[in-house]
């Protein structure tokens, strides 16, 4: 069946790309692992051409890199990259929180409050609290109405997730993060741009310190 005009066919390269990207972001493919075209083609039952195309796309996203003597490797995790990612995240989210405090609709505020209630009930479940936290940040971006800012953050979310997944967030940190989220929402609901910006900046940098500590411990143990 021929796809409708304007509808892009899901190609073999798309399949390989999405599969490898998910495996890299989830750390199923660990940092530094070599990716061999022939082995990947055999594993995914495709020719080498879509594998090559997929690796090229991943290279453009800096999720893989070329080795100094050739070969393609999963991009390593390192402290400087982590610092840069969180500085970018802090800048983008600070602007969005500030704008949300000025432009959030009653429906946006109600959705934020509902997500906080769900988060409080599920604090003992790490995956759920992380999912709800991500949804809350999405609502803040939407309420801010700065679409370019949201697009820019989406470009680095995969990289951020690779670091976050290392941390196995503790129960005490989940409680702290919940309190930080409540502070952010309270500032937005109070229409206080300065407080909203400060609250989300402190939240992002607290998350950075948590992940940084785990990465340092990982590097020390290596």
UniProtKB/TrEMBL annotation:
Gene3D superfamilies: GntR ligand-binding domain-like (1.20.120.530), Winged helix-like DNA-binding domain superfamily/Winged helix DNA-binding domain (1.10.10.10). The keyword Cell division does not apply. Keywords: DNA-binding, Transcription, Transcription regulation. Residues 10-77 form the HTH gntR-type domain. The keyword Isomerase does not apply. SMART domains: FCD (SM00895), HTH_GNTR (SM00345). Pfam families: FCD, GntR. GO terms for molecular function: DNA binding; DNA-binding transcription factor activity. This is FCD domain-containing protein. It comes from Nesterenkonia alkaliphila.
């Amino acid at each position: 069946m021929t796809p409708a005009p304007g509808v892009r066919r899901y190609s073999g390269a798309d399949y390989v790309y999405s599969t490898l990207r998910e495996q890299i972001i989830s750390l199923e493919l660990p940092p530094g692992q070599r990716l061999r075209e022939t082995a990947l083609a055999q594993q995914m039952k495709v020719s080498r051409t879509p594998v090559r195309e997929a690796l090229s796309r991943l290279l453009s996203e800096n999720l893989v890199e070329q080795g100094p003597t050739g070969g393609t490797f999963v991009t390593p995790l390192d402290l400087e990259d982590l610092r840069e990612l969180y500085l970018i995240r802090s800048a983008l989210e600070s602007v969005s929180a500030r704008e949300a405090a000025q432009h959030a609709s009653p429906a946006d505020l109600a959705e934020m409050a509902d997500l906080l209630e769900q988060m409080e009930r599920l604090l003992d479940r790490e995956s759920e609290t992380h999912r709800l936290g991500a949804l809350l940040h999405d609502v803040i971006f939407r309420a801010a109405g700065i679409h370019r800012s949201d697009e820019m953050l989406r470009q680095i979310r995969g990289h951020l997730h690779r670091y976050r997944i290392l941390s196995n967030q503790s129960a005490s940190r989940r409680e702290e993060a919940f309190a930080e989220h409540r502070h952010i929402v309270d500032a937005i609901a109070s229409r206080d741009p300065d407080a909203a910006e400060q609250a989300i900046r402190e939240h992002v940098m607290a998350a950075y310190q948590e992940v940084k500590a785990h990465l340092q411990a990982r590097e020390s143990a290596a």
